[in-house]
Amino acid sequence: MSKKEKITVQGTEITIISGKNDDYICLTDMVKGQEGEDHIRNWMRNRNTLEFLGAWEMLHNPAFKGVEFDTFLHEAGANRFNMTPRKWIEATDAVGMISQAGRNGGTYAHKDIAFEFGSWLSPVFKLYLITEYQRLKEAENNPMLGEWNVKRVLSKVNYTLHTDAVRDFIIPKMDVEREKAYAYADEADMLNLALWACTAKQWREANPEYAKKGLNIRDTASINELVVLANLESFNAELLKRDMDKSTRYACLHEMAERQLTRLNAIDAEKGFRKLGAKK
């Protein structure tokens, strides 16, 4: 179980170690900055917790020692009763939890158990934990998703360069404040028209089901389209610096978008991205 990954849940970085079929989430990370292992021990002293842990082991672990479990269950609830992950593992041969020593060690639990612990900590924290875990799994199962996110970030970075150019080379030429307010959206829509032949408003009207979810035309773009969009943003910023009029810029951008997208689709660039993702 050597593969390690991290997710961030409500500002807390949590380690996940993965084997062939199972993922184990670090409980120690989940309570980092709080009472640490005390939280874990207090949770394990709870009779309901022990019943859950025992039920999980009986479902997944043929070597689970039921007699020792019954003894613990009988003692649970008494003031003197104490339970730790290591004690639980050594006494019952449990496989649902892992206790690692050392600087990078800690207590790990199978995702089923980790979600249960998260619920004990806070139902809201559990929901965020499940969401981030699922996001990680989706990215692993679909290499294109990770590549899409990279390209989406790239287009956003280039968008900053684009808006800076609008601020520096278009806004100063405008006298009417109302026109200044629409300048950024107007330039962004010119790129939309050059690439997708529609404005952001036209796309929302044509795709109300996506608009209701807060998605826009760029959120639903393909990787090839995002690559071209990033190039258009950079190119338009340069054209603005050259004081080129809008109609001429649009003609250049439209020609560039058509040529690049046709070429990327022809060589199946997205398939190339998939191959790169598979090698990681």
From TrEMBL:
PROSITE patterns: KILA_N (PS51301). It comes from Jilunia laotingensis. Coiled coil: none annotated. InterPro entries: KilA/APSES_HTH (IPR018004), KilA_N (IPR017880). This is KilA-N domain-containing protein. Pfam families: KilA-N. Residues 5-136 form the KilA-N domain.
